[in-house]
Write a structure and sequence with these properties.
- This protein is mainly alpha-helical and 691 residues long.
- Helices cover 68% and strands 0% of the residues.
- Helix 23 (346-356) runs parallel beside helix 25.
- The radius of gyration is 34 Å and the shape is flat.
């Protein structure tokens, strides 16, 4: 770097403009590390959080992280500037194990605030090598340091530190330290003997943490303490007992788990206020607590908890857990939902449909069939999915009727898709008895085609494809010759999944359809075949009069699975498309990039100077995949391209492909570039190239 560039960086660092200072911090990586380091450390105290954040990022990218440790520890002692202190702490954590020796030395600092901050950094790094020193700090004269050390030991998570933490729980004079030690032991999943927890269990402030920790205890008496804790007067203690009991159940084999669950159920029923608190808390509090309440109520069971659980499930973050819990109730939950259906609001009915879809009762099927014709579209769609999940043959006629109504409405695409899935799941030939329903489903659909709307005919083609109808089907042949191009296109798309070694003749005929949209669909369908004649059809489509069809054919060539003999023909077609320009050339470049043939570089190079930025960018991306490093030097002039997208793509490719000769040009451009995204891309490329 010359003196002028260096002076520019230093000038901008002192600017009153936040953005200029931030950009100057980004450019500090261009200075020698010994000069950049103190400047970066100084910017950790900048008044702008964006400048501080940039300094943290650049410090994290230093080649010698350990050299930064003394300056960062010094910043931790800045009691006047919390922004600087927090940024230094974040930087130390980002630097990780490289600064561990420096932090261990700094943990003996005379200032307890610095010791506390150093311990917090050790907690963030969470390296096992800090464990011994952190155990020593459990005896620090300052309670805040001791508490931080206990928290840090929880983050380090080494089982051999559990005895020291247990001693802190039993003997430390400060409640804060004991609480931190209890939480650390919980993170270690290591519960001390019950005798050592007696003091914490008798302290109202520590009891919740001690009860939660007993979830990891292997002592038989732990169950009794937790069950007794369920009825504790404190809500926090009761919730902690629930947490501990759920954890104990999760740690046991099936028989022991069910035995404890029965004891929990008995204890809960004898303490109705516990159940009431859990029910009342289903829709409030943090997520973990709400999930525990759902699980607890799943143990309690009973008709009284079904509706509250269903109501809580309206929150999408709880929905899956609620449904799984209610599913465990079996027929009991189904009966409550089916009986009380009329009292449910729309959101609850959606969940009820999901639940009934997991069951088998006749009452559940009847409710789902009723829901299939309700006014609420989401309820209808969910009922359709539920009936499909049940694989209910008796629902086939109703589903096809609803499918027709949804298609005729022409505005229920999401519901229509779910109906197609449900009908196909019940009737598609997937083996077993369900396969026998496919012909019936085809007849039900075919019987409705005569006077049906265009929307229904197109949707019917999609459904027939899911039902595995062959190209020889009379119903599908009728749709292939439909007067509507949209219907014919849907019929072509329906044929595509069945294309394999031999192309169906109707599909080949569709390549010459009068509608461009049908020919485009045919191109994609033909490409899925391994039939040698497929390349002939794609070649004709690549010469189509419509540019959109030509582009579709070239994209389809990327998916065509022809053998080696067809490869020269495919490459020739793509070369011709790349020379055409416009959207056809875009399609050719995308396919060439996907194929990764090095010969494609010769087709992409001329397009770097295209007037359309999107085409130039596609050429850059293609070269990034197929060109050799020498050919990639052709991207250097694009660093000054008018379009930021082209500049960014060229920089990305140069960095990822390791074109070392790009470094001088990138450094020169860095001084001029003002687009923030491009600058970030350039800095990442320079970091990669200068390693």
């Amino acid at each position: 770097m010359d003196q002028r560039e260096r002076d520019g960086i230093l000038r901008d660092l002192a600017s009153g403009d936040d953005e200029l200072r931030r950009l100057a911090v980004e450019r500090l990586v261009l200075l020698a590390p010994a000069e950049a380091l103190p400047l970066l450390a100084a910017r950790l105290g900048d008044e702008s959080w964006r400048v501080r954040k940039a300094a943290v990022e650049r410090l994290a990218a230093l080649p010698d992280p350990a050299a930064a440790c003394p300056l960062l520890v010094q910043a931790l002692a800045d009691g006047e500037n919390p922004g600087r202190r927090n940024a230094a702490l974040e930087s130390l954590v980002r630097l990780g194990g490289a600064v561990l020796p420096g932090l261990l030395a700094a943990s003996a600092n005379r200032d307890p605030d610095v010791r506390k901050q150093v311990v917090d950094a050790l907690a963030g790094i969470a390296e096992g090598g800090a464990a011994a020193r952190l155990v020593e700090l459990l005896a620090d004269p300052d309670a805040n340091v001791r508490g931080a050390a206990a928290d840090a030991l929880g983050a380090v998570a080494r089982a051999d530190t559990a005895p020291a933490l247990a001693r802190a729980v039993a003997t430390d004079s400060e409640r804060l330290v004991r609480l931190s030690a209890l939480r650390a032991l919980a993170r270690l999943e290591c519960a001390p003997p019950l005798a050592e927890l007696e003091g914490a269990l008798s302290d109202s402030a520590l009891r919740p943490a001690a009860l939660a920790l007993l979830g990891f205890s292997d002592e038989p008496g732990a169950d009794d303490v937790l069950l007794k804790g369920l009825g504790a007067g404190s809500r926090a203690a009761s919730e902690a007992a629930i947490e501990g009991l759920l954890r104990q159940i999760g740690r046991r084999g099936a028989g022991d788990a069910e035995a404890l669950a029965a004891r929990v159920r008995e204890a809960a029923l004898s303490a109705p206020d516990v159940v009431e608190r859990a029910l009342a808390g289903l829709e409030s509090g943090d997520l973990e607590a709400r999930l525990r309440r759902v699980q607890f109520l799943g143990l309690v069971r009973g008709e009284a908890v079904v509706r509250p659980l269903l109501r809580a499930g309206r929150d999408e973050v709880l929905a899956d857990v609620v449904l799984a819990t209610l599913e465990g109730f079996g027929a009991e939950a189904e009966d409550v939902v089916a009986t009380g259906w009329d009292e449910l609001d729309a959101d609850e009915r959606v969940l009820a449909c999901e639940l009934l879809g997991r069951g088998h009762s006749a009452a559940g099927t009847r409710r789902l069939l009723e829901a299939l014709v309700q006014s609420d579209a989401v309820v209808r769609a969910t009922a359709a999915r539920a009936l499909g999940r049940r694989r209910s043959p008796e629902a086939l006629d109703a589903l096809v009727a609803r499918f027709e109504a949804a298609a005729e409405a022409d505005d229920e695409s999401a519901e229509l898709e779910l109906l197609v899935d449900a009908i196909a799941t019940i009737a598609a030939p997937a083996g077993g008895e369900a396969g026998a329903l496919a012909p019936r489903a085809v007849r039900l659909v075919g019987a409705r085609l005569g006077e049906a709307s265009e929307a229904f005919r197109a949707a019917a083609a999609q459904l027939l494809g899911r039902l595995g109808v062959s190209a020889e089907s009379e119903t599908l042949a009728l749709l292939m010759s439909d007067e509507s191009a949209a219907v014919r296109r849907a019929a072509v798309e329906a044929l595509a999944p069945g294309v394999a070694d031999v192309l169906p003749e109707p599909l080949r005929l569709a390549c010459a359809d009068e509608a461009a949209a049908v020919r485009i669909a045919a191109a994609h369908a033909v490409a899925a075949s391994r039939d040698p004649r497929a390349l002939d059809d794609l070649e004709r489509l690549a010469a189509d009069e419509e540019p959109s069809v030509r582009a579709a054919a070239l994209r389809a060539l990327g998916a065509y699975g022809g053998g080696a003999l067809e490869e020269p023909r495919r490459l020739a077609l793509l070369e011709r498309g790349a020379a055409e320009g416009g959207p056809v050339a875009m399609a050719a470049l995308e396919t060439l990039r996907e194929l990764g043939d090095p010969r494609a570089a010769a087709f992409a190079l001329p397009l770097l100077g295209a007037d359309v930025p999107e085409l130039a960018r596609a050429a850059v991306a293609c070269l990034g995949r197929v060109a050799d490093p020498r050919e990639l030097e052709a991207l250097l002039p694009l660093l000054g391209h008018d379009s930021w997208t082209v500049r960014a793509e060229a920089i990305r490719v140069l960095g990822e492909r390791g074109v070392q000769r790009a470094v001088p040009a990138l450094l020169r451009r860095l001084e001029e570039e003002r687009d923030e995204f491009v600058r970030e891309t350039m800095l990442r490329a320079l970091e990669r190239l200068e390693r």
